Amino acid sequence: MSNQRTPRDWALLLALVAMWGSSFMFNSIAVATLPPLTVVAGRVGVAAVVLISIVYLMGKRLPPPGKAWLPYVVIAIVGNAVPFYLITWGQQVVESALAGILMAMMPLATIALAHFLIAGEHLTRRRTTGFAIGFLGIVLLMGPAALAGVGGDVLRIVSQLAVLGGALCYALQSVLTRLIIKGDVLVSAAATLLIAAVIVVPVALWLDRPWLIAPAASSVAAVVWLGVAPTAIATVLYFMLIRSAGPSFMSLVNYLSPGVAVMLGLLVLGEAPQANAYLGLALILAGLAFSQSRPRGS
């Protein structure tokens, strides 16, 4: 696979950064008055309804029952149901800054898996160095004080491991998507989210009994947003980017998303980033440029 990325690849990447970069903030708003499982169920349920409606309005159809659904089941479990719940549950305890740092392990895990499983996705020194520089930038961007929260009591440690587990699920999903998801990307995204909804929604109804909950309007709005943009639309863009540019390039989303978190903090919450934030963002961009550049003479 060539290291040359098209403008379309970069546009898809930046769109995913914008959508997924907002997820941590909206997750925090959602779990303020809703249980994590209900948030996940609402998120994938809304996303499934949106994409299935679009599929049928465009005259397309989901695959007939049978083996064709097996890849969608795998991706729904590994890439939606399990990581969504792990991260949402973990964010009840883990701050957004620390969650962002833990999620930054996803690109490193992705390039390691892709090296062994996908042709053309070799673990080069340049790519590894670039990703390491980017990870250091994330630590600085989020603030080194966030690392002080690593460890702690048993619940905190388990919550951090849950977020890290979600990151590793996303890494595995990226590689598996490239290997097993074929055909129309819109149909694939709709089928995957339908399976995720079928798995999660009944469990949430059984365990959380959400009809007895009186959530804040802000939590409900956050769930709807999470379903429409960071889940429904982003899943389609995600499949498109994986197919055209590969999982290692797609995983750069997790290096750029913290920049969106800083911007939202500045514009929405009135936070003023410190000098380390700008240095961290510079390192992230430097790592991105280095990992995607080609050695002289190649």
Major β-sheet annotation: none
- DSSP, total strands: 0
User: How much strand?
Assistant: under 5%
Count of helical stretches: 13
Q: What count of domains describes the coordinates?
A: 1
Classify the helix fraction into a percent range.
over 70%
- What is the N-to-C succession of helices and strands? HHHHHHHHHHHHH
Distance between the termini: 14 Å
- Secondary-structure-derived class: mainly alpha
How would you state the average pLDDT, rounded? 81
Uncertain stretches of 5 or more adjacent residues: none
Can you tell me about this structure?
This protein starts with 6 loop residues before the first helix and ends in a 6-residue tail after the last helix. It has 13 helices and no strands. The chain is 74% helix and 0% strand. The protein has 298 residues and is mainly α. The mean pLDDT is 81. The protein has one domain (7-292).
In short:
The protein has helices at residues 7-21, 23-30, 36-57, 70-90, 96-103, 105-117, 125-142, 154-180, 185-208, 217-245, 247-250, 253-267, 275-292. It is mainly alpha-helical and 298 residues long. It has one domain.
